[in-house]
């Protein structure tokens, strides 16, 4: 079911399971985890929601939209069958189970069909807006993953957990939303984006009577042999993950609490001209800088200044280190490159570190730009390639224990606003489980949407500081 304090706004109409078309030749498929996947074993499951402006009645929703979405989801899962399966992981290092995604014939994905029943002022236009909204109300549109279980036999002690759930919510006479929650262990943002585009494409074709579903360029590539691991990184990361699984410090620093009615979510838009203006501000220090680097650096400095303005974490500031975590996709950086439709994870973490004083001073923005760029290039321009140091990932995170750190989720490369199910493109895309999420802008070509999740007082202070230098 949907979760959060906003749950009383949503009525569940149906809770069902959706399976791919039955293939009698398949009884079990095992997809082993790679070291790229192992990094995320201790990470919370991310969630997102798409809003679609398509006014319809409850009757039309239940009799037309939902049946089409169920049918197209089943056809999509024919290609993305691991999403119906379960993540199988050992409980301890002494267990011999190899971590994998296991699909058994008859496995399915949880689908919640719901209807918004709150007041119109808190409904579709409110929740799909850019202004500050209560996070719990957005969480009511995102399903929980079904609970996992522990299974013990004479050979193994394993944990079995579902990897994806979906919720479709009607806002009567206004529109609908599609919310997802998935295990990061199973797929990264590009794979999730490919899944959603595939589902949307199949549904659109279905509406006009086309049935050429097997030739989409987002159909996944599953060959794990393209991932080479001569250094045994997978074993190292699995060992470190199981060793640290119960330590709270390894919960993702950027993930806000699921149930916390003091948190609000807001979106800030940067158009191409404003982004160029940020680049101009640091052109003397860093002549050539990418959009991603300059925007993330600006957010990092604004967050440090916000904490300073609110009197947070500023004691002995010269000794306080802050860390910005971001991910780099290695699909086209490995040798040989991996296909863009590869199913799984292929991203590596990058860590930028500065003292608080280096962020809040006059040249703090330029310092942040240089540090993030250096962290990115360190993972690119070295003899070992983008995998350098990945085996020490948990050690590096452990070294930051007790220090301020946050990360960015999403990417403008995924084109989330192209996910048209045949009833129109999304009005709004929202990452609801991150402190800072980034996506391409629907309103401005070359622009960005920046989603933030903070306590309300912090959001007011951050927004004021953020907009000071935006022209």
UniProtKB/TrEMBL annotation:
Keywords: Acyltransferase, Transferase
Domain of life of the source: Eukaryota
Pfam family, one: Transferase
GO molecular function: acyltransferase activity, transferring groups other than amino-acyl groups
Listed PANTHER family: PTHR31625
The protein, known as: Anthocyanin 5-aromatic acyltransferase-like
Organism: Heracleum sosnowskyi
Source organism phylogeny: Eukaryota, Viridiplantae, Streptophyta, Embryophyta, Tracheophyta
């Amino acid at each position: 079911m949907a979760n959060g304090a906003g749950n009383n706004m949503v009525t569940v109409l149906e809770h069902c399971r959706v399976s791919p078309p039955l293939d009698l030749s398949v009884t079990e498929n095992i997809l082993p985890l790679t070291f790229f996947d192992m990094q995320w074993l201790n990470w919370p499951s991310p969630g997102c929601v798409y809003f679609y402006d398509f006014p319809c009645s409850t009757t039309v929703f239940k009799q037309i939209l939902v049946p089409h979405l169920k049918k197209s989801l089943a056809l999509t899962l024919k290609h993305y069958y691991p999403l119906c399966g379960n993540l199988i992981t050992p409980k301890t290092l002494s267990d011999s189970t190899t971590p994998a995604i296991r699909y058994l014939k008859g496995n399915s994905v949880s689908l919640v069909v719901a209807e918004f029943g709150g007041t119109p002022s808190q409904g579709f236009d409110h929740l799909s807006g850019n202004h500050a909204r209560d996070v719990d109300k957005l969480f009511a549109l995102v399903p929980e993953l079904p609970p996992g279980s522990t299974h013990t036999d004479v050979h193994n002690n394993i944990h079995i957990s579902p990897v994806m759930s979906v919720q479709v919510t009607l806002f009567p006479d206004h529109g609908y939303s599609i919310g997802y929650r998935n295990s990061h262990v199973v797929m990264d943002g590009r794979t999730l984006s490919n899944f959603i585009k595939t589902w949307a494409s199949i549904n659109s074709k279905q509406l006009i009577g086309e049935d050429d579903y097997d030739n989409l360029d987002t159909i996944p590539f599953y060959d794990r042999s393209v991932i080479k691991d001569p250094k045994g990184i997978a074993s190292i990361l699995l060992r470190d993950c199981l060793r640290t699984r119960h330590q709270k410090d390894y919960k993702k620093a950027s993930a806000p609490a699921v149930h916390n009615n003091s948190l609000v979510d807001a979106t800030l838009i940067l158009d191409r001209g404003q982004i160029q203006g940020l680049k101009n501000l640091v052109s003397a220090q860093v002549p050539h800088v990418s959009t991603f680097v300059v925007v993330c650096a600006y957010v990092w400095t604004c967050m440090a200044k916000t904490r300073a303005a609110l009197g947070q974490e500023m004691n002995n500031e010269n000794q306080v280190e802050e860390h910005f975590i971001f991910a780099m996709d290695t699909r086209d950086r490995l040798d040989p490159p991996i296909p863009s439709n590869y199913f799984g994870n292929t991203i590596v973490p990058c860590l930028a570190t500065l003292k608080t004083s280096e962020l809040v001073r006059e040249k703090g923005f330029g310092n942040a730009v240089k540090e993030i760029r250096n962290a990115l290039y360190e993972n690119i321009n070295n003899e070992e390639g983008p995998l350098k140091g990945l085996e020490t990932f948990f050690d590096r995170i452990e070294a930051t224990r007790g220090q301020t750190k946050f990360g960015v989720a999403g990417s403008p490369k995924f084109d989330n606003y192209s996910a048209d199910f045949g009833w129109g493109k999304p009005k709004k895309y929202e990452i609801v489980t991150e402190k800072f999420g980034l996506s391409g802008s629907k309103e401005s070509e070359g622009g960005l949407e920046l989603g933030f999740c903070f306590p309300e007082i912090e959001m007011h202070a951050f927004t004021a500081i953020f907009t000071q230098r935006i022209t």
